Amino acid sequence: MKNKIIASIALLLGLTTFSCENVYLDTNPTASIDANAAYSTTKNAAAAINGIYRSFIVRYLSSQGHSGHPAMMIILDHMGEDLVIGTTAASWHVGETRWTAHRSDVNTMAQFPYEMYYRIIGNANIGIANIDKSVGPQADKNTLKGEALALRAFGYFNLVQLYGKRYDATKKPNSQLGVPLVLEPTTTGLPRNTVEEVYAQINKDLSDAAALLSVNRVNKSHINLNVVKGLQARVALVQQDWANAAKYAAEARSGYAPMTAAMYVDGFQDITNSEWMWGFDHLEDQTEYFGGYHSYISCNYNSTVIRTYPKVINNLLYKQIAATDVRSKMWVETPTTANSIVPPGGVRPKFLNQKFRLPGTPSTSAMGDVPYMRAAEMYLIEAEAKARLNDAAGAAKVLKDLVVTRDPNYVQSVKTGTDLIDEILVQRRIELWGEGHRFFDLKRTNAALNRNGTNAIASVALLFDVAPGDVRWEFLIPRREIDANPAIVQNPL
Amino acid sequence: MTTFGTAKKASFTGSSASLGAEKLAQRPITNIGQALEGISAGVTTTSTSGQPGSSPDVRIRGFGSISSSNSPLYVVDGVPYSASIANLNNDDIQSITVLKDAASTALYGARAANGVVMVTTKKGTKGKNSINVKYTKGFNTRALPEYDRVGPADYYPLMWEANRNNLAYRATSPVAIATANATASAGLGAIVGTGYNVYNVPFASLVGLDGKLNPSASLIYNADDLNWEKAIMHQGVRDEVNANFSGNNGKSDYFLSVSYLNDKGYQIKSDYDRFTARLNMNSQMTDWFKVGANLNTTITSSNQSTADGGTSFVNPFFFTRGIAPIYPVYAYDPASPGSFLKLENGNLRYDYGNLSALGLSNRPQYGGRHVVAETLLNENFFNRNLFGGRGFAEITFLKDFKFTNNVGIDITNANTIVFGNPEIGDGAPAGRASNTFENITNYNLSQLLTYNHTFGKHTVDALVGHENYNLVSNSLDGSRSQQILDGNYELINFTTTTNLTSQKDLRRVEGFFSRLNYDYDSKYFVSFSARRDGSSKFYQDKRWGTFYSGSAAWRLDQEDFMKELTFIDNMKLRASYGQTGNDGGISNYAWQPLYALGWNNATEPGILQSSLGSKTLEWETNTAMDVALEFGLFKNRLTGTFEYFDRQSTNLIFAVPLPLSVGIGTETRNIGSMYNRGVEIQLGYDVIRKKDFNWHIDLNATKLKNEITKMPQESKEIIDGTKKLKEGSSLYDYWLREYMGVNSETGVAEYRAVSYVASNSRITANGDTVTNNIANAKYRYHGTSIPDLTGSVSTSLRYKGFTLSALMVYQLGGKIYDAAYAGLMGAGYHNAKHVDILKRWVNPGDVTDVPRMDAGRTADFDAASSRWLIDGSFMNIRSVTLAYQLPRSVLSRFKIDNAQVYVSGENFLMLSRRSGMNVQQNFGGTTSNVYSPAKSLVLGLSFSL
Asked: Across the strands, what pairs with B308?
């Protein structure tokens, strides 16, 4: 009898604890959501598109100096002659300045832009493929699809300029290798398309986006019709399609007035600025700390970079700025505590950057906003395109409309031909310093890199001349891609 | 001790190794993982970091997985343990047993694929009540020296050369040698920092046009002023006290212990402060009902070193290893060279490298950073409370049946605070802090029904059981910046939130299992088991896997035909075969395609693709077999085991790298197969066996072969850092550029070329095509980090009351990729240099394998290549203990049962091919700037009443 009682107790205990159902093993994360829900509604889809904008500004390859598109803006200027490392203490972006980093296939510099822009493209591809199936108003779907198309075009436009040989309008079709055109979600590596094909896709995506977008948007961090036109203007400029460059540039800046001289002094850290067409609105809880744009480019954030090797401007370029021009104050030839701001213990090399300045002295936060596109650039594109179309008067007028807002004494240029183009390009270098245009400008204009006679420090820069057409104008395809994608081929070494 | 029960060594059919309390008691080990080194053939560990409390990595019989976990499962008092083993008090441990074969571990299922480490805590022993007290005091110092580096007399000329050679040899517009010499001499100060001249001659004449240090130069600072290591390292004191109380009246037993440990590392601000308490009670309440509980708590607080292996300025090993030998810890007085600036309180002022306001020049290396000051001013600590409980109720019925209900719970609550000070470093100028709370609760429930029956010469032992494991982890993580008042690191004392997030994660495993043991006449033993496991990491159609195992043993010594061979006391032949599933090391939600939260665009919500997921992902399977002969000869004077094992891993889970152009980095798939095969030998010998004099030696050796046998079709080769995975290669085969030495005419580093390119290649006299451009350098295999032979030798010598015991571990062969050394061999500016740099190329005709100094060619000269490989053989005298047992005659007068005094040391001596190299840092054979192991030496006193 006793045994039976014990046996029953044992059985009972067993039964109560055995009764696990299959749902016991169904678990769900709290820090992520099911990918299938990402485009189930337009509300979710909006979050997925917002995530892409955020992916512009995060750290890649865990490298502080390679925090997204803003880092590319700084690095591409370092690769030119105008953004100069101020002292020999430099450690970040030295290999980039010397043009060695992007020429090693295992270097972060070969991989990070490739990985970042393709991540933008990959996420945009998911959006383009799925947005039509989501539940929500058609107007929202149009906007989201337009943004995704424009983001994809933006990604390819950067990639083709970095990894492909220069586009040459006199040699159509441009059959040199660009980058693989991945246009839908996949896990299979594709071969490289030609530069011509890549540009055709960029132009198609941008015109499709333009048809879907309007000038309205929730936040300046989004791409709207103005930004699409701005991108079309940039693309046309690189393709030497001067008529379209001038047309799109003029249309793009509609509604965005140049800053006044007074605004200019604080013009490079706040997205609400009237001249900014597109940027990133940096909030405190989205910081990359020492990796952020202003942690490298500002004059007063307390980072090792800014304290010990702040950025200075090419002295030869600086000398071309008129004393009456507000921009002459954005760099200081002989900086002192009275005329310049630096973090505590910071050095003050000559021609010191003051263009990018955060509120507060010293700034306790790196949370400046990032300017991706400003109306000034559109004036400069239109002026350059018109000048190249031999519309000297039209070009000079557009240039004057911009420059006079910086320098009230500026007189409309009477130059023509190459002289006028050169004047416009000098204005372009001054105006867009630190915003990521110089390397691409040298490449598209087939100009040499020439740092001779500048204040570039020999032991830091090492490199003073690169001829047009040199293989080093192309970034190497990263080893990581070559290993995983049998269809890919490397650029000439 | 074995799976779900105990077994006599003689009848055990598996492969295991144990370490008892007597061997553990006197070693000054803060983390019991340290005791696993050298414990047995087939068990290898990394060296434990010098951070007190840290755990080494452990591998049992090779490397079973590529992406999943390779770590063994810890089972404490019969229940899998998921909390940190650093919570366990060494003195509470009765035994540690390593189960190596799959048949023994199979019943633990999913998490036991890489072997099991069973830890059993003490119980009251029958007969008497006893009180044991132990006190130890000792200290920690650095076990490995720093690499040999050049001093200032060599450093300045090296910087001169780096500059001169860049000017003279650069590709575009090179400068004539004479001009370059003059420029380098004149420009030395500008490169190393105009205020950083440690000699009494001015910079302009410090290094002459011949590149040599001015012979009349003499140091104006003494060497300690330039010694950063000394400023941040000290002798860490270690104190430990233990007391336990136990008893057993035959029906009930109890064991109660308390301990306190304070272990300070040899780096400042690195320590481990731990309090533990344990109560183990068991009672046979009636003849059919037994119940027991084992409760423990551990309260830990620890300052953690920031030596994470990386290259952040707050890593003391990175900073002190890399800083050039001319930069002082304290600020020179610019007005009076040779003396120092003082603070108002009279202390010396640290040279932050950016004190330009005080007239100092900026330090070009690590400017504005100071690892000593930052370590002192910053905070990085955790407080961790653990509660653990084990309980069981056992019912015996129908004579041969037993039903046991087990429950095990481990709850960890931890709070980690990281503070960056506002004065210098990452927190400057406003200060910042992050504060993380974690709550990790795991429970493990199992129900076992066993049947044990002996009839005649047959014994049958059968078991069925069910187990479920549930892990819930909650975390809350916040960071704020802009400190309000000094000395308070709580977030309320800061103004701006820079991060605030929380998440909850869940992992579950469920298993059903059964086992049948049978033995005939204590001669023949067989065992079969089966287990079905389900894991929440896999999709519902794939989550269940069934795994079988079997083992057998034959005791030859019990056979009549062996009885005549009287010198044989024990001889057993055994074999086992078993399968286990592995799902460790991958995401808790590995099968699910996911978008991650936390990608907000300013104030708008944002998500981003984070994982592709895979509905076909399933269990990785580990199938292991072994065959062994165990023996004891000459009255068991010579004992030993010869063993062969073969572990086959199939369905390997791997994060397969996708082309970057598809927009997401990896996809988790079951991709391939790999094996680990090896031979293990263990021998023990009593050299002297007398009443008052014993000497015993144990020796073991393992030879392991690891090979990948199948890779996926879509990625036949996967390059992973310095390694490449491919069919036919091992998990740890180096895939590197082939370094071909230095061109004796130009001093450039040369590598075997992919193809001849006129601008960077040449064909050597041997017909090799070599290049000096790394982009054209060819990669190939260069051996493996897996050693030819590993093992240990231990010995114990007892003479009357004295016992001397020692353990030495060794490795023969295997290659080390010495990245930490590579960092000291750069051809550029601003870094400490290893003394091997003195062999660099200087003049045309020099034959050497160290390229010229050249600041412009660092990318080519310093690149990752076979140049940095070195033989990994080493020998480490891991532990030495000398103990003296006080004579009973003396003790009895004080009513003391037993008393001992002892001295014990860990990491007594470490020898390898390169002084300072940390060979055992990881299994992949690469070195980095980690907290190098500590040498601990303690004096202990223990007595029992």
From this structure: B930
CA A63 to centroid of chain Cα atoms: 17
Q: Which of B311, B660, B664, B666 would you mutate first to test chain A, the one with the most A CBs within 10 A?
A: B660
Query: Is residue A313, in this structure, part of any structural domain at all?
Result: yes
Counting the structural domains of chain A, the total is 1
Alpha carbon distance A482, B808 (integer Å): 45
Q: Which residue has the tokens 């424009």?
A: A150
Kindly list the distances between the CA atom of residue B437 and the CA atoms of A187, A395, B196, B383, B476, in Å, as whole numbers in the listed order.
38, 62, 45, 10, 5
Going by pLDDT thresholds of 50, 70 and 90, the confidence category of residue B629 is very high
pLDDT above 50: residue A19: no
Residue of B468, B588, B608 with shortest CB distance to A52: B608
Please name the amino acid found at residue B657.
Answer: P
User: Mutation test of the interface with chain A: which of B318, B418, B450, B601, choosing the one with the most A Cβ atoms within 10 A?
Assistant: B601
What is the distance between the terminal CA atoms of chain B, rounded to a whole angstrom?
28
Distance of CA B346 to the CA centre of its chain: 43
CB-based burial of residue A493 (10 Å sphere; 0-12 exposed, 13-18 middle, 19+ buried)?
middle
A17 → closest Cβ in B367, B447, B775: B447
Residue A346 lies in a domain: yes
Q: Which domain holds residue A307?
A: 284-353
**Residue range B396-416: mean pLDDT, rounded:** 92
Q: What is the pLDDT of residues A216-251, one digit of tens each?
A: 999 999 999 999 999 999 999 999 999 999 999 999
The single residue listed with the structure tokens 């001009």 is: B179
CA distances from A68 to A104, A292, B50 (A): 19, 9, 36
Residue A345 in any domain: the answer is yes
Helix (H) or strand (E) holding A155: helix A138-163
Tens digit of each residue's pLDDT (9 = 90 or more) over B418-440: 999 998 888 888 899 999 999 99
Tell me which residue has tokens 């035994």. B95
Q: CB-based burial of residue B720 (10 Å sphere; 0-12 exposed, 13-18 middle, 19+ buried)?
A: middle
Two tokens, residue B691: 């009443």
> Rounded distance, CA A368 to CA A301, Å?
10
pLDDT at A14 over 70: no
Domain boundaries, chain B: 152-233+322-369, 398-536, 739-777+824-861
Q: Do A462 and B170 touch (CB under 8 A)?
A: yes
The single-letter code of the amino acid at B307 is A
Beta strand B116-121 pairing with B73-76? parallel
With CA atoms as reference, report the closest residue to A475 among A66, A59, A96. Answer: A96
Q: What is the pLDDT of residues B506-538, one digit of tens each?
A: 999 999 999 998 988 888 989 899 999 999 999
Q: Are the C-beta atoms of A202 and A228 separated by less than 8 Å? A: no
**What is the DSSP code (8-state) at residue A66?**
G
Give the residue, B565 or B12, on which the prediction is more confident: B565
Length of chain B: 945
Dihedrals phi, psi of B46, to nearest 5 degrees = -85, 170
Q: Which of B5-19, B346-360, B833-847 holds the top average pLDDT?
A: B833-847
Beta strands (DSSP E) in B634-738 are 638-657, 666-689, 693-710, 717-720, 723-726, 733-737
How many A×B Cβ pairs under 8 Å? 309
The single-letter code of the amino acid at B454 is T
Q: How many CB atoms lie within 10 A of CB B766?
A: 7
- The answer to whether B574 and B16 have CB atoms below 8 angstroms apart is no
Q: Tokens at residue A328, please?
A: 């002459």
pLDDT at position B595, please? Answer: 96
The per-residue pLDDT for B1 is 47
Number of neighbouring beta carbons within 10 Å of residue B892: 10
Provide the mean pLDDT of chain B.
Answer: 90
- B823: tokens are 């960092």
Note whether B447 contacts A13, CB cutoff 8 Å.
yes
Q: How far apart are CA A52 and CA A198, in angstroms?
A: 21
